[in-house]
Amino acid sequence: MQPASRYHLHSHWERLTLYLIIAIGAWLRFQNLGTIKFNIDQVYPIWQALNTLDSGQIVLTGQNTSVIFPNPPLTGYLYLPLVAATRSPLSVLVLVIPLNTFAIYLVFLSLRWIIGTRPALVGTALFATNPWLVEASRHSWVQSLMIFFLALIFWALVPVLIRQTNHPARRLTIALVSFAIFANTYLLAYALIIPMGILFVIYPKRIPRKALITGGSVFLVLMMLYLGGLYKDRNLVEQQLMSYRSGDWQFTVEPLKNSIRLISGWDFAVTHGKNAPINDWEQRKFFSDGLNLLWASLLFAGVVHTLCRAVFDSERRDIGVLLLIWFFFPIVSMSYISRPVHLHYQIFGIPAGYAMIAWLLVPVLKRPAGAVVLSAMLISTGAVNTLDTIRFAQATEANPSQHYPTLMLFDMMEMGDIINENRGDAVVYTDIYEWTIMASAGRTLPVTRTFGFNAQVIAAEGSFYIYRNTSPNLLHAPKLDAVLELEDNQQLSFWAATQNFAIPNHTVIPSDIGVSFVGWEIVGELRAGETVELRTYWHIDQLLPERFDWVFSPYVHVFDSSGNRVVNAPGAVLETFTWRQSDLVIHRIPLTLPPDSQVSYSINTGLFDSIRFVNAIFRIPQNKDDTLFTADIPLIQHQP
Description:
Layout: H1 12-30, E1 37-38, H2 40-55, H3 74-86, H4 90-115, H5 117-129, H6 131-136, H7 146-161, H8 168-183, H9 193-202, H10 209-232, H11 234-245, E2 250-251, H12 254-264, H13 268-271, H14 281-312, H15 317-333, E3 336-337, H16 352-360, H17 362-365, H18 368-398, E4 407-408, H19 409-422, E5 427-430, H20 434-441, E6 447-449, E7 455-458, E8 463-468, E9 479-485, E10 491-497, E11 515-523, E12 531-540, E13 552-560, E14 565-570, E15 584-592, E16 601-609, E17 614-615, E18 618-623, E19 626-630, E20 633-638
Parallel strand pairs: 5-6, 5-8
Antiparallel strand pairs: 1-4, 2-3, 7-15, 8-10, 9-10, 11-12, 12-15, 13-14, 13-16, 16-17, 16-20, 18-19
Helix pairs in contact: 1-4, 1-5, 2-3, 2-20, 4-5, 4-7, 5-16, 5-18, 7-8, 8-10, 9-15, 12-14, 14-15, 14-16, 14-18, 15-16, 19-20
């Protein structure tokens, strides 16, 4: 068959079928756009782009991983133009989803090169409606474009290797440049060099040298930049490498299972969408399991068929070798590992699995009865997978707080609007990930992640607090009218505070750790056996470098008339590495006097590092020439 003939669909029905498959695949990827979840991994590349725009920071390495090295940083740079134009997390999906949707057409073209039009439609239909791939096509993390790049590389490379193109140099250049870009968006993408390298060694005479040098040069330039970043962070890289080597290495069949899931959609109903308003996941699982058994059997038979072609069919041997290497490389490489095996690792094997099944079914498609049965299987599989995809979106919309602080796209965008309209220059304090806050707001801004209410920080620029489902009773911080209502009756509330208030019992007692005690007050009446709230006020005077090793928190001690400590009330631990210059920190400490406290007692406070067992030492002026250096600051001396 001449290469040019493979570019034409031979019937009106084939064209309509392809258009329908692409339309369904596109709809599945764009449906319920606002329910797409943005966790910390999803927002990292957006934050990286914002950091480059707002701070001019050029990075050579990206987000850290659990797999040896940090990711390359190119995904953040690919997002940068769209983020610069819109300052919205929605903009990156305008890039990601269309490209991953275009991958459907690239898969069809690739399969048609090697097995013909109608079998290609079978594989493309499985690819377009697979719920695992639909979900992976809607992500914004560093590997968000892997489906597009893998489809593009396969489409460009296959005709070169099987000698079915009139432009091998052009296609090889496209494949290698695409690989160079892909490899520098996602660390594991570098592994694709293994199957490509094996195929280049097997078929060296089919590889145009000039194109190999051109594409290889682009790859080397980008890789050298990344290696320069790794060298700069070599101490961290060495630690991660040692941690990876020390893991519990073992064999696992999970990669094989994941490869089957990427064909049939198996198990999606179990892991996604169980909390959808329509509780039909057990029925969907039942049908999915049955269909999976059929497709898994066909995959096994397809592998055997492809292996036989590779061994005994000299005319189609090249195709068999290519498909087997491409499909089994991610399975074999991930079968002995010390880390969890994520499903997206097996995406590297697409579209070879679809090709082997469709190749097996070529004789079936030539018979009307067989084509009807196969069409019924495809329609049933597509229907179940489509329903699984929709139910997952519905479950996410109905339960947006299930994986908090992961937020849905539209909720995150609304939160960003509230922040931009009300924050001013204040520092944001919240239990939501810092990168999520910045991606929501579309700009870099100071964010401190906090989880408790017994320690309140008011920055010199002011503080902007975000809390979920609580009234934290913040001091000097009115609640804003803006509220973000979530679908599951959860809500995010917003508060603001400044330092423009009179500190009770104001004083200034500096310490050796750059913190001054500046005031205190008691809420309630001090009576024996009852609990009051003691509020202590602390000012961050300077940021000493040693603070990254500190765990200082306040305490309140009550002593009886004999000097015995009868109460030890600790305050909340506030991470010292989060301190900012001129912060005002308010600690709220419940204090219960003993029942026999009618006699003399005294109440002191101070700061204690519970890891190193050391106190902050305060300097209390006594008179003109004398200073008391002490760990305990006296607050109350009670005489009956």
